[in-house]
Amino acid sequence: MNTQARHADALERLQFEVFPTLDDAQRFKADHYRKHLSLFAEGQFVAIAGDEVVGATSTIRRHFDFTHADHDFDAIIQGGWLTSHEPDGDWLYGADLGVHPAHRGRGIARALYAARQQLVWTLGLRGQIAVGMMSGYGAHRDEMSAEEYLERLRAGTINDPTLSMQRRLGFTLRQLLPGHVHDPVCDDYGVLIVLDAATPVEGAVRPPTGERR
What is the pLDDT along the chain (213 residues), one digit of tens a residue? Predict the structure, then answer.
């Protein structure tokens, strides 16, 4: 469902569960979530199990120049407020997506990506952009470079807890972004990933012709 203001406190707690080693300055807090609703309410989603918020994603709209793709997380989140949102942007930019560790492996992340892709179709956007954390790289940084890790991910010879799932979903792994985020699990690396609007996502339903904006 779309995020509501009443979810804000639970979402702040979820950030600590999902991103325990992330620099706290890069975690969203309850006030941030309330601000996101005033910017782009239809782009905020939660997954609910009973009365518990177990997953969430925050998105904005952006224009994006792939010839100048280098950017960092701080430039997107703007102190957590997501004021880099461009109301007429032609890409849906996924600022984050997370599922509570106790609820992983149940298709919740896929459902959130499907909700995002359905929004892409409804708004007539070009697709989804995000930066996936190389969340398995921190444990291998003494064995291989980040560039080699990414190439092995592309070849399918290694598995990353985050990027491999995103790749199976249909995302293309486009570009390595050093220093994108402050988190030791990925040695601060992110990877620019793209899911074109033409790509079907299980669970996403295309709106009837004439209903897209």
Answer: 999 999 999 999 999 999 999 999 999 999 999 999 999 999 999 999 999 999 999 999 999 999 999 999 999 999 999 999 999 999 999 999 999 999 999 999 999 999 999 999 999 999 999 999 999 999 999 999 999 999 999 999 999 999 999 999 999 999 999 999 999 999 999 999 999 999 999 999 998 875 555
Region 5-196: CATH code: 3.40.630.30
Secondary structure class of 152 (helix, strand, coil): helix
Distance CA 152, CA 111 (A): 27
Q: Yes or no: say if 127 and 75 are a contact pair by the CB < 8 Å rule.
A: no
**Contact present, 195 and 169 (Cβ < 8 Å):** yes
How far, in Å, are 19, 53, 148, 200 from residue 13 at the CA level? 10, 9, 35, 32
Angle at which helices 8-18 and 30-40 cross, to 10°: 110
